[in-house]
Amino acid sequence: MNRALEKREIPRMGGSVTFLGFGALEIGRDWGLGSGKDRERPDEREANRVLNAVLDRGINLIDTASAYHRSEERIGKAVSHRRGEYVLATKCGEHSREPDTFYDFSYRAVKESIDRSLRRLRTEVIDLVQIHFGPDPEKVIEEGKTLEAMKEARKEGKVRFLGASIDGELAKQCILSGDFDVMQMEYNLLNRQNEENIRLCREKGIGVLIRSGLAMGKLTPRILPYMEEDFPEKGRIRRLLELTEGDGEALTALALRFLHENKGISSVLVGTKKPGRIDRNIALLNREIDGELLTRAAAIGAGD
Ligand SMILES: NC(=O)c1ccc[n+]([C@@H]2O[C@H](COP(=O)([O-])OP(=O)(O)OC[C@H]3O[C@@H](n4cnc5c(N)ncnc54)[C@H](OP(=O)(O)O)[C@@H]3O)[C@@H](O)[C@H]2O)c1
């Protein structure tokens, strides 16, 4: 079995997604660890290579957002002719105004944003549109205008399913509301706050997409040059690296496998601007890992 390409069913969507999904933030906007070139988005040609590598390898889920600057447009240009090969997820509520983004969760802004996403993505229909929560999420939920606009777009046949990208107590509130088919939440070896939410989604047939499954690169070899600096998770990452004898890729393999063990997770949206990482991450997910090592890594990640 290829763990990366294992299809996981999302009952509320009546379909399935590959366990390894693709996060398209990194191909549209500067992002991630470090500074300068390390964070810079790729040029258009390289972004095109990443996106086609994703589909060539059989990954069937692409997650983007209207706020990821060039991401939607690049997906539209590079792979819209292969539209049948991927489940397409985008977001609304946070908007791009390069080099910044801004929030507008009003009915009108959200309707316009969905129409703009359809044009940029060069598609007739978006499979999943998610609320891209920012500051003051309580207000967005309470006013309900964003959800109203998303439901209207669904009625018009522009989107098929609705989701929310949010964590913790408010995620739980969204899950229990019954309005959402999919939840996008942060979860990784170092951050377990959504564990109970993941369980609840599984019980309700709601899909779970994981963002920052590699802790934005901290659970990859990219952390190695920063291990002399101070940052909150440093102690736990050092102990994890002791387990892997300093091997950064082995750390990534542990982080991915930890997620794979959780059957409530539909897909982990690993982001990258580098085409070669797609093959690497597939290979790392398929590495044999000693069960005891994984148990120890999980305990260290949880702070035990
Ligand atoms: N609010 C939201 O809804 C929200 C927020 C954040 C993210 N997201 C979604 O989640 C996706 C992923 O989240 P994320 O970017 O925060 O974190 P992530 O997937 O945990 O980490 C991505 C980082 O890991 C690096 N990486 C990936 N595979 C690697 C490997 N094999 N070796 C070395 N480095 C590797 C990438 O660097 P390179 O580019 O150098 O490969 C990238 O900077 C995003 O693309 C986006 O779709 C959503």
UniProtKB/TrEMBL annotation:
Matches recorded under CDD domains: AKR_PA4992-like
Domain spans labelled NADP-dependent oxidoreductase: 20-294
InterPro entries given in the database record: AKR2_Oxidoreductase, NAD(P)_OxRdtase_dom_sf, NADP_OxRdtase_dom
Organismal lineage: Bacteria, Bacillati, Bacillota, Bacilli, Bacillales
Domain of life according to the entry: Bacteria
Name recorded for this polypeptide: Aryl-alcohol dehydrogenase-like predicted oxidoreductase
Coiled-coil boundaries: none
